[in-house]
Amino acid sequence: MKKHEVFTLSTSTSFSGMKEKLSKEVEQFLNEKVNEGYEVVNVSFSYFSQTASSTELVAFITLCK
User: Fold this and answer.
1) 15 near 53, Cβ under 8 Å?
2) HEC string of 15-65?
3) pLDDT digit string (tens) for 33-61?
4) Which of 6, 42, 48, 52 has its CA 20 to 30 A from that of 60?
5) What gap in Å lies between CA 20 and CA 13, rounded to an integer?
6) Model confidence over 5-44: pLDDT tens digits?
């Protein structure tokens, strides 16, 4: 049976650069994990509003080994 692990990465920079910055972080993270022998199961992105002026973009990553 494979062991599944869930990771989250997030960013709360300006809205226009949020997706690009987090996408690069996710890509680097996934490259590291794949080199360690993990298999990517799922990657999804979601916006999270903490307050009216603060929005955070969160990546949910599911891997298995």
Assistant:
1) no
2) HHHHHHHHHHHHHHHHHHHHHCCCEEEEEEEEEEEEECCEEEEEEEEEEEC
3) 999 999 999 999 998 876 666 788 899 99
4) 52
5) 11
6) 889 888 876 666 778 889 999 999 999 999 999 999 999 9
